[in-house]
């Protein structure tokens, strides 16, 4: 078992100040980005899980079309939560699975970390599309983001089901209502998440690339 040396606690996150699901996610990832910047280049698992746990609420706001993503994402975050009982950092997980030749093995912590990273990137890509035009609907944003981030890793049957489910996505007005926010505030929070999540996503990618593990899986 890895020695616990992380001084982080959930009280360091400003969760109490967050009034909407989107603000909660944004503030958690801004704090996570600050922790990464102030660390020695390693990210502790528990604060990472804490921040990631908020993202499932955003998947929930998208309704049936992204139920598959919500279920898969939550299961992977839960697995990493269990892993935090044994491993202190994300790097520890990769080191263990590299040693045991199980990085890509279904159910391994390293594989699940890769899937969580894809979930974070999916939300970021959706926000980028949503902000690209005032006329961009959640359906258009989600369809484009899914095609970019997730579709390359999914079977034809899953892609087909997701495509059919896109018709059930909420309208722009309905999404704002679910997020308990108004248009200008949502756009501001989306931009904050994009900026805060970028270094986290890049850090996870570099964990694999630094060990000569490709990202095409």
How many β strands by DSSP? 0
Output the CATH homologous superfamily: Glycolipid transfer protein
The end-to-end distance, rounded to whole angstroms, is: 29 Å
Poorly predicted residue ranges: 1-8
Instruction: Tell me the strand percentage band.
Output: under 5%
- Structural class comes to mainly alpha
Secondary-structure element order, N to C: HHHHHHHHHH
Radius of gyration: 17 Å
| Overall morphology | globular
Helix content range: 55-70%
- The CATH architecture assignment turns out to be Orthogonal Bundle
Question: Main sheet, how many strands, which sense, barrel?
Answer: none
Q: DSSP helix count?
A: 10
User: How many domains comprise the coordinates?
Assistant: 1
CATH topology term: Glycolipid transfer protein, GLTP
What this model shows, in words?
Residues 44-180 form the Glycolipid transfer protein domain. Keywords: Transport. Pfam families: GLTP. GO terms for molecular function: ceramide 1-phosphate binding; ceramide 1-phosphate transfer activity. The chain is mainly alpha-helical and 217 residues long. The protein has a single domain, classed as Glycolipid transfer protein, GLTP, CATH 1.10.3520. The protein has 10 helices and no strands. It has helices at 21-38, 45-53, 55-61, 67-83, 90-99, 109-132, 138-149, 156-165, 172-178, 183-209. The longest helix is centred in the C-terminal third of the chain and has 27 residues, at 183-209. Mean pLDDT is 87; it is low at 1-8.
């Amino acid at each position: 078992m890895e020695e616990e040396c992380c001084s982080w606690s959930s009280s360091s996150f400003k969760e109490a100040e967050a009034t909407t699901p989107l603000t909660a996610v944004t503030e958690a990832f801004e704090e996570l980005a600050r922790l990464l910047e102030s660390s020695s280049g390693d990210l502790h698992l528990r604060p990472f899980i804490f921040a990631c746990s908020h993202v499932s609420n955003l998947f929930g706001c998208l309704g049936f079309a992204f139920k598959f993503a919500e279920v898969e994402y939550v299961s992977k975050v839960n697995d990493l939560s269990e892993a935090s009982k044994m491993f202190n950092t994300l790097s520890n997980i990769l080191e263990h699975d590299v040693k045991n030749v199980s990085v890509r093995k279904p159910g391994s912590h390293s594989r699940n970390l890769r899937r969580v990273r894809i979930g974070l990137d999916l939300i970021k890509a959706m926000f980028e599309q949503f902000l690209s035009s005032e006329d961009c609907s959640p359906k258009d944003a989600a369809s484009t983001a899914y095609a970019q981030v997730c579709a390359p890793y999914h079977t034809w049957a899953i892609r087909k089901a997701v495509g059919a489910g896109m018709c059930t996505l909420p309208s722009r007005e309905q999404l704002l209502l679910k997020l308990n926010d108004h248009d200008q505030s949502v756009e501001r929070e989306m931009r904050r998440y994009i900026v805060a999540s970028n270094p986290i996503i890049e850090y996870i990618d570099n964990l694999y690339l630094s060990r000569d593990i490709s990202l095409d899986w």
